[in-house]
Known about the structure:
This is Aminopeptidase N. By secondary structure, the chain is an alpha+beta fold. Helices cover 27% and strands 30% of the residues.
Amino acid sequence: MRFHRPGSRSVVAALLVVSVAACGGGGGTFAGGSGVGDPYFPKAGNGGYDVRHYVLDLAYDPRAHHLTGTATITARATEDLSALNLDLRGLDVEEVTVDGVAARWSRAGQELTVRPREAVEGTFRVTVRYAGAPVTVTDPDGSEEGWLRTADGALALGEPVGSMAWFPGNHHPSDKATYSLAVTVPKELRVVSNGEPAGEEREGSRTTYRWRTGEPMASYLATLAVGRYDVRRTATDGGLPVYTAVDPEQAGESRAVLARIPEVLAWAERTFGPYPFSSAGAIVERPEDAGYALETQSRPVFPGAPDIVLLVHEIAHQWYGDSVTPRTWRDMWLNEGFATYAQWLWQEDHGGDTAQRTFDLLYAGSYFPDAGTAEALWSFPPAEPPDAASVSATPVYWRGAMVLHKIRQAVGDDAFFALLRGWAREHRHGNADTGDFTAYVEKAAPGEDFAGIWEEWLYGEGRPERP
Ligand SMILES: [Zn+2]
């Protein structure tokens, strides 16, 4: 069963009620559906259930480029389901069971439709056994994600829809879950992922590495890095474990900047509130291994040694994006506008340009060295990217940050920084959309009129007439 469900969550719920009623109510079960109605990625995620926990038991041999996996997904059905979908791209499915009983299944594109022997209700467990050569996914904007082969192993990056290249799941940011991973690789390699290590075992020529993520994580923030890393565990003054994994070629250049992770975390906690996860760190690959940095949860990935500002950007995402996660891909500015504004704040606090000056230069068109990017800043409103290829485009980052600066101008510094912290606290480990944000700001500063900021800066076409 394949159908699109455009519209908001409440519209989706209303449609479901109608469709069940239209069936005459007989049995009262229905197929979960192939998407959650994301405006840009309509087939991402699936309807009818909410994943609680993923157990991924994987083995990867880089030389053969072969992955074998067993994914055990514990989920709660939001309706009685006669069928449910998982997202999985490439790979061969060998067996599917639901609560231990073999289930029928079929595939169409990225949709793996599972038909359990009996309709599922309440909490259930789907196990998928699969194998094959995991694929690299090219995004609508031309960047690469999914499973990236590296000189000595592999790197999995998932924004926005790449994680379905290495495990079946509900691959939409609105469904967050906890994770347990066990990954077996040739003994000369290491495996690094999100969260905390949970042991390693050598058996013959292979080693199994275990990692656990105990806080909810959107699947696009899951990462898996296989290679020859220099792995270190340090801690902040407050005792937060910091795990770094660095490609040996990047070790020299990375040392000084990675040593500043505790300092950046301390600054970010003063600015944004308590760090939302139980460990921190970074993964540094070779520049040619990935085309961009990504804020993979608790352990951002960098293509080569980052500079301090890029490190600040990805660490700020731990609050804005990873803990407070967009409800759909339309809300991407809530990630990138905030992480970009964090860069401005860091520079302001460390002897660089003030956020006001950065804002003024952007408005004047003299911030970016090339006229094309300066012009692209005004190509669409940050809260309404025109298409899937634009969810990571310039206005989402820079004009998104300008929206935050306009709010700061309106309410003043004390109220603004309280607002940054309050937003992170209110939606900690959850999901939020642009409407939630504007409502939050209006409630936090009831004496201010934000209508002009929303109309011109957040939703308005073109360059606002006045800075
Ligand atoms: Zn970012």
